[in-house]
Amino acid sequence: MTEAVDDATLVQMFETMALVAATDDALRAAISAGSATLAYYSPRGQEAVAAGFAAALRPDDYLVTTYRGLHDQIAKGVPLRPLLAEMLGKAEGTGRGKGGPMHVSWPDVGLMLTTGVVGSGLPIAAGLAWAAARQGEGRVTVASFGDGATNIGAFHEAANLAAVWGLPVIFLCQNNGYGEHTAFADHLRVDHVAQRAAAYGMPGVTVDGNDPVAVHDAVSVAVARARAGEGPTLVEAVTYRLFGHVFGDRMTYVDPKELEAAWKREPVTRFRQTLVEWGLLSEADAAAIEERSATTAAATLAEVLELPEPGADEVLTDVVAPAGADATKRTARAATKVVVPDGSVEVSVRSAITLALDEALESDGRVVLLGEDISDSGVFGVTKGLAAKHGADRVRDTPISEQAIVGAAVGAALGGLRPVAEVMFMDFLGLCLDQLANHAAKLRYMSGGLTPVPMVLRTAVGGGLQVGAQHSQMLEAWLTHVPGLKVVVPSTPSDARGLMAACIADEDPCVFIEQVLLLSRKGVIDSTPIELGVADIKRPGADVTVVTYGRQVHQALAVADALTSKGVEVEVLDLRSLVPLDEAAVLESVGRTRRAVILHEAVVTGGFGAELAAGISEALFGRLVAPVLRVGALPAPLPYARGLERLALPGPERLLEALEWVMAYEG
Amino acid sequence: MLLRLPKIGMEMTEAVLAGWLVDDGATVVKGQALYEMETDKVTNEIESPAAGRLRRIAQEGMTYQVGDPLAEIDED
């Protein structure tokens, strides 16, 4: 169990609180004076929570916090200068000025994430805890959040996942009485956030968040439990937000008497008095600590205000890993216990993906799989046999919790694993797009390269199977629009295996799209490694290029064969990855044939084909002999009835028609 | 210390100096409300970031951009 906090730690907690208050004071003064212009979410009043929990942690324990996180960041040990520099958008900032005050990361002291999205850090904390537990270093993860966050789905999904998996997480709710401008009593119908722990089968405890010793003691119990492998705890520290939501908040929604009472419980002054009463500090000692903090904060802020902003070259740096960053990993093959079929045996796309996952699990201990029902082969049998071979702790079933699945993958990647998450159908990306688009995609950039997210998200698409509009959509355009995500769509068994291996080896988040109708298609495996961003000419031709990907490649090949009899030679260019895009291959091919038709299963409107068509037109306008055409699904939710579904999806007839139109075009 | 029009919240670009709350040349303490500024969204009282003697620069009723000088505080 935990020991009573020692005298030196008590004094150190006061020093932390004094530094937080002084830094907050300096920042608010600079904003008032107009010398700093940032949206600032003051943690003033919550100092004791940060000082208390941080004193209960090891330096290597992880922390995930939120935009009201200055106190947490300082307490965990983030140095003041890069912290303030990030808040003010300077090149010396933790994220080289690209994240800003809501997005501070400093892995040196375990600060892996500061998120600007309420609640989103919790699934990521679960993933960090999973990584730490697998690595066996006894690290715990503290997820810090407000009372408002306990009403968002991410909280519930993360709490449940952490409990079901027994993860070493401390869910630390800093209940400051308000979610934005809404009072606690108006957004919850329980008296204490800690009561919610019962719903997930974990302990929940409420403590005085203005007393750092109380917070320290409660967190210490939770930490001991987590390190012992006994799972998560919800600690609710009841505190108060003394300066409202954001700087300039007039707090008109707060009863002045309530605010006055809160100031009487102001934690820094209170703890100072306690330490003086206990004889640990004299009044003079305490005053000296406060004065030193004020000097440090003011001097650091003054220095930081004069620092330069990041250079223009930073704008496109850290969007994805620099070229060649993953080269060493990609050479790590040699899977001794995996039998790779030789060139005489045909395997299905499904088996090829299974093979790639098997090889990765075999050759790289960091690789883990997570998703719904995946230990029992997954909905389409892609993960069949992998749990039995590699263990259910590496091929891990999850609750039906898409945010938690993707968030845990993000966290696991931050924690040094190579997670491959499965979201059963691409249509369900809507449930977890925040984790993918706001976190996986952006964390490398916003941290100036400190926190890359090397994860893979596998997801299936049921178009053509008559499974209705919520299990059928190709939504790749949602993803290609977000800088930081890589998007891959295989068309053959060989490509599926090679591209999956490349995705797992990649240093960035990759979405791997598995069209269900393609899974049983067979072919031989070519073991030549495939790089992301390298298109493949599946059929050479001199007259017109069909730019396509996924199962539509085969449709294009069939139509191309049919056109040969009419004297038209169609080139079929399979992009394989949409991001990174092999722009050179597209322009080389279309530059040669001077005609292009883009074919994809997704709805034409706003689809990836529009991006391709624009790119081709911009680069080859004068060279084209016909307009670039796009063939894709009709602009409707995919209908269920067989005939209607066929009509809505791009069939060979529409591709043939487009090709004939382009060939006949005379300007 | 030069006091400039602060940026309050995410979208503010300018504000009207609605009124001075201290006289020109007055001695102010840190945290004392100095002036009211008014945007389309809200009226705010801005507190003094330092103690000292205040010298007004800006005029009541005029519109200023974020970063425009409004006053100066002679510290000591």
Describe the structure.
Chain A is built from 24 helices and 22 strands. By secondary structure, chain A is an alpha/beta fold. Chain A has three domains: 40-278, Thiamin diphosphate (ThDP)-binding fold, Pyr/PP domains (Rossmann fold, 3-Layer(aba) Sandwich), CATH 3.40.50; 327-524, Rossmann fold (3-Layer(aba) Sandwich), CATH 3.40.50; 536-664, Rossmann fold. In chain A, helix 15 packs parallel to helix 16. Chain A is elongated and about 95 Å long. Chain B is mostly beta strands and 76 residues long. Chain B has a single domain, classed as Beta Barrel (OB fold (Dihydrolipoamide Acetyltransferase, E2P)). In chain B, the strands form two sheets. A four-stranded antiparallel beta sheet of chain B has the order 1-8-6-3, with no helix packed on it. Chain B is globular and about 35 Å long. The model of chain B has no long low-confidence stretch (mean pLDDT 94). The A-B interface holds A 28-35, 37-39, 246-248, 250 and B 1-10, 30, 42, 44-50, 66-68, 70.
Question: In summary, what is this structure?
Answer:
The complex is a heterodimer of chains A (667) and B (76). With 667 residues, chain A is α/β, with parallel strands linked by helices.
Question: Per CATH, which architecture of chain B?
Answer: Beta Barrel
Write down the CATH class of chain B.
Mainly Beta
Class from secondary-structure proportions of chain B:
mainly beta
In which range does the helix fraction of chain A lie?
Answer: 25-40%
How many E strands of chain B? 8
**The CATH homology group name of the largest domain in chain A:** Thiamin diphosphate (ThDP)-binding fold, Pyr/PP domains
Q: What global shape of chain B is seen?
A: globular
Under CATH, the topology of chain B is which?
A: OB fold (Dihydrolipoamide Acetyltransferase, E2P)
The total count of strands of chain A amounts to 22
Most residues in contact, chain pair and counts? A-B, 15 and 23 residues
- Biggest beta sheet attributes of chain B: 4 strands, antiparallel
CA-based gyration radius of chain B = 12 Å
